[in-house]
Specification:
It contains 29 helices and 25 strands. It is α/β, with parallel strands linked by helices. It has a seven-stranded mixed sheet with strand order 10-21-22-23-19-24-25, sandwiched between helices. Strand 12 and strand 13 form a beta hairpin. The structure holds adenosine-5'-triphosphate.
């Protein structure tokens, strides 16, 4: 068994000395030296500092996702349903929905020669280099639903059909996994910016789709793009030009997805425009995902269930994501998050994940070895994202960024062999497939690594001019050091050379005694700053040398850039390897995280049948919050008993139980173990929740969700409805609940329906597939013996609640006069008797129900049973006895009532 703690090895740190003077240790300079001097193996932490200042690269998340099969095999990459994390990929999706369009006017436009920008696109605020841009985006515009580490960085283009194609929606996103249903999936993408055609979005006359998206994503920037840029022909051309050849089968899939292609064209054009760079040919991973591959969880349900965001505190980790997240990489974290929002449907894929988790749990060495190997990876997607952009202009900053990317690439590639060694110890199909996918990659055969190595930090003798420029730089740095030494001797002062990004080289002096000899500084020392006893200044000569230094550096960067660019064009040929690596690392990280979660709590591997049967299930988040085991409960929903009505007084645990079932379902479908003693799950294609909000039928807020469920639920859905009708009058509430129940009862979906209206429990006698259950409570007398107090057991039991007079009991504890309470009880009892008297069933109905139950149980047994013949015979005999007893007791109870 594994323990919950894991060791984490951080990359080593630089021990690099200054260029010419032992006193010069500016950070930037140290970083440059890695590039300039061509060290063999720069320590990785220095590399991190080079590109991101003091920030750890792994913390600079750029959410995105890649889609790849769990097998990691290239041939099946497109069929995967898994939302993941590749940063630089183009996702395309299409969906027919019934949303109409209308007209508007343009806000953002290009002309063929001079780009003309009239709006302020979100990306333009974020600095020149792609990486920095994305990182800043992360912090500046987190969507409401995002935790800091998952903030928005995805741009989505959406277009809807017109004329005959009205209702069809095409969507393309850069970086992320694509959605099927626009709102939900947009929610999953957490877009930073949404592009829509000007004709759909202006002058207060936006289309329904536009208004809906705008309403849902209040903090997201909307950019109207001229309709002509949503051009499907161009979209197809872009994909042909940009797609990595290994992923080009996507062309077959998208050829007729006109609106997707149109969105893709607007998106690519826009992105290149605002980034002032173009995508390198054959460098993008382009994916098309269809709706059939993942389960649908609408945005409201995701919020209700606290899948990735906590209700009360958006930063809190008390969410399903928080419970399962032990990932080590940004890609793994993104992948887990998007999987939770889009669980899988394919049992084979889910089982292969579960097999892997099981192996990780049984093989400690593999678990810790892989975890350790994974923890060193930088954000591959982030790097990919930067690598595939070819800047339109060459500036020092651009050159510096590209060189940094190459260094990061080298760091990442160096980690591959140890990852492969660990994977070679695995026995499960999934890990083997990932091992093979890395094995196939040409970088592992050395070509890419060799080239990177060669170019990394641009070694001497690669470029003659570069060598000259470097020598010039080193000489200037030596001159600076000499100048400062001379000045120190001349004035008898303890001067030393320093460097800062803003000042360049300057002189520093610390006076121990606190008083200057002679009272003032020599006149040639200018631009003096002082902090206590620390002086900083420069001289005219030093400033001139600084300028020389800058010039030399610029030359070095430009020349290095030329070499690096050559290298990058080689890298593009192998870019698919990086996509595969990113896929492998993020998936492994996610599976390790899920395995880790099993070591923290007692989880069980689910199996998949046509029944939802959970023994002693627990609420995963409640369990984590309370630090102690919550009360566990059994759940059983099957084809013959697929509509469960749950009653119980306030605070008895109904909502918690409902959410528990939904969360366990989601956990099972992402391939996680779950908190129970045993679990059998039926794959749900959609999970709907409508949970505890006051219903205001005038503003339509409640009916929206219910009608959404009614219109979209299928036979394979899981529906959770809690307190429908709350906030309305009892008559209205019961009426609405009744009709909604009657509709849902006729579906084959699994439904859990919690309510305070005990009247609904009669549905059990009318429909054989309805089952009543309730949250048990106990009543104890208060200490003075005057009233009763309710003790919650949180225990779910068959039958309906008897807590009809809960309100009266509550009143008992107050100071209401006892005769009033007595009167209330009498009235309630009479009304209750009358109501229940109406609900008895005639013998024929009772019989039919027993027959129905027997038939469904037999069917279920035929489909799922793994019993040996003897046990099966025994089981069937039991069923027969139960059936006879049901008929007998039902008949007796009817006689009694008569
Ligand atoms: N299985 C459980 N084990 C331990 N504590 C629980 C359990 N279920 C619920 N609780 C606790 O009881 C509180 C009330 O639960 P919950 O909100 O689910 O009740 P409810 O019946 O839905 O209430 P209401 O009808 O007022 O909405 C929760 O905040 C939780 O802390």
């Amino acid at each position: 068994m594994l323990c919950s703690s894991t060791e984490e090895v951080t990359p080593g740190s630089s021990s690099e000395a200054g260029p010419s003077s032992s006193t010069v240790t500016p950070h930037n300079l140290t970083d440059y030296r890695h590039v300039i001097r061509g060290q063999q193996d720069p320590p990785s932490s220095s590399v991190l500092l080079t590109s991101h200042g003091s920030d750890d690269v792994r913390n600079s998340l750029c959410p995105g996702s890649s889609t790849a099969t769990d097998t990691g095999a290239q041939a099946t990459v497109f069929t995967d349903t898994t939302p993941t994390g590749a940063q630089r990929q183009l996702n395309i999706t299409g969906r027919a929905d019934r949303i109409s369009s209308s007209v508007g006017s343009s806000v953002f436009s290009w002309s063929s020669n001079t780009p003309h920008l009239r709006a302020t696109p979100a990306l333009l605020h974020h600095g020149p280099t792609p990486q920095r841009c994305l990182n800043m985006t992360t912090s500046s515009s987190a969507s409401a639903s995002a935790s800091a580490s998952h903030a928005a960085s995805v741009i989505v283009a959406v277009v809807e059909g017109r004329g005959l194609a009205r209702g069809e929606i095409g969507m393309a996103s850069i970086n992320v996994k694509c959605p099927e249903l626009v709102i939900t999936k947009l929610h999953n993408l957490m877009p930073l910016e949404v592009l829509m055609p000007d004709t759909a979005s202006v002058k207060g006359q936006g289309t329904k789709l536009y208004n809906l998206i705008k309403e849902t994503f209040r903090s997201v920037t909307f950019t109207a793009v001229m309709r002509k840029y949503f051009n499907e022909k161009k979209g197809l051309e872009y994909i042909q030009q940009l797609c990595v050849p290994e992923f080009s089968t996507v062309l077959m899939e998208v050829q007729t997805k006109y609106y997707c292609l149109a969105s893709a064209s607007a998106l690519v054009k826009y992105f290149e425009f605002v980034q002032n760079s173009i995508y390198a040919p054959k460098s993008l991973k382009v994916i098309f995902t269809g709706s059939e591959q993942t389960a649908m969880i609408d945005a409201i349900s995701a919020v209700n269930l606290e899948l990735v965001v906590n209700h009360r505190d958006h930063r809190s980790k008390h969410t399903l994501f928080g419970v399962l997240n032990y990932t080590k990489t940004a890609g793994g974290e993104r992948r887990l998050r998007s999987n939770i929002l889009e669980p899988l449907l394919d049992v084979v894929t889910i089982n292969s994940r579960l097999d892997t988790i099981q192996e990780l749990l049984q093989n400690e060495e593999l678990f810790f070895g892989l975890k350790n190997a994974i923890a060193h990876f930088l954000d591959i997607d982030d790097l990919l994202s930067a690598l595939v952009q070819v800047p339109k202009q060459e500036t020092v900053a651009v050159a510096e960024a590209k060189i940094t990317q190459v260094i990061q690439l080298k760091h990442i590639l160096e980690l591959v062999p140890s990852l492969k060694v660990m994977l070679s110890h695995s026995k499960t199909a999934l890990l083997e497939a990932y091992y093979n996918s890395l094995e196939d990659s040409s970088y592992t055969k050395g070509s890419l690594t060799m080239r990177t190595q060669k170019c990394y930090a641009v070694r001497p003798n690669v470029s003659e001019f570069l060598d000259i420029a470097r020598r010039a730089y080193t000489e200037v740095v030596d001159d600076i050091a000499g100048l400062v030494t001379q000045l120190g001797e001349k004035y008898g002062l303890p001067l030393r050379t320093s460097f800062s990004k803003t000042r360049g080289f300057f002189i520093q002096m610390r006076l121990e005694g606190g008083v200057l000899p002679g009272g003032t500084l020599p006149e040639e020392f200018i631009k003096v700053t002082r902090q206590k006893n620390n002086y900083g200044f420069t001289t005219v000569d030093l400033m001139k040398l600084n300028d020389h230094c800058e010039e030399a550096l610029k030359d070095i960067f430009h020349m290095s850039y030329v070499v690096v660019s050559r290298l990058l064009s080689d890298i593009y040929e192998h870019i698919h390897c990086l996509y595969k690596l990113s896929d492998a690392v993020s998936m492994l990280d996610m599976l390790l995280s899920l395995a880790h979660a099993c070591t923290v709590s007692d989880y069980v591997r689910p199996e998949f049948t046509d029944t939802l049967a959970i023994k002693q299930g627990r609420h995963p988040i409640l369990e984590r919050i309370s630090g102690q085991q919550p009360i566990s409960n059994d759940s059983c929903i099957s084809e013959g008993s697929n509509f469960v009505i749950i009653t119980g007084p306030n605070m008895s645990g109904k909502s918690t139980y409902l959410k528990q079932v939904a969360l366990c379902q989601i956990m099972a479908q992402i391939g996680s173990f779950l908190p129970a003693e045993y679990a059998s799950v039926r794959i749900a294609d959609q999970i709907f929740t409508r949970i505890g909000v006051d219903d205001d039928f005038e503003t339509n807020s409640s009916t929206f969700m219910v009608s959404y469920i009614i219109h979209n639920a299928s036979a394979k859905s899981l529906i959770i409805i809690d307190e429908l009708g709350r906030g309305t009058s009892p008559e209205e509430g019961i009426g609405i609940c009744h009709s909604v129940c009657e509709f849902l009862i006729n579906l084959k979906a699994f439904t859990l329906f919690a309510t305070h209206y005990l009247e609904l429990c009669q549905l059990q006698t009318l429909y054989p597939n309805v089952e009543n259950q309730h949250m048990q409570v106990q009543h104890v007398r208060t200490e003075d013996g005057r009233a009763e107090r309710v003790v919650y057991t949180y225990q779910l039991t068959r039958g309906h609640s008897e807590e009809r007079n809960y309100g009266i009991r509550a009143a008992e504890i107050t100071s209401l006069p006892s005769d009033i309470i007595q009167e209330a009880k009498t009235v309630a009892a009479t009304v209750g008797q009358k109501l229940w008297a109406k609900h008895y069933s005639d013998p024929a109905t009772v019989r039919q129900k027993a027959v129905y139950r027997l038939a469904t149980r037999l069917l279920q047994t035929a489909r799922n049973s793994r019993l040996d013949p003897e046990s099966l015979r025994h089981f069937l005999k039991g069923l027969k006895r139960q059936y006879e007893a049901e008929i007998q007791s039902a008949a007796e109870s009817v006689e009694n009532e008569e």
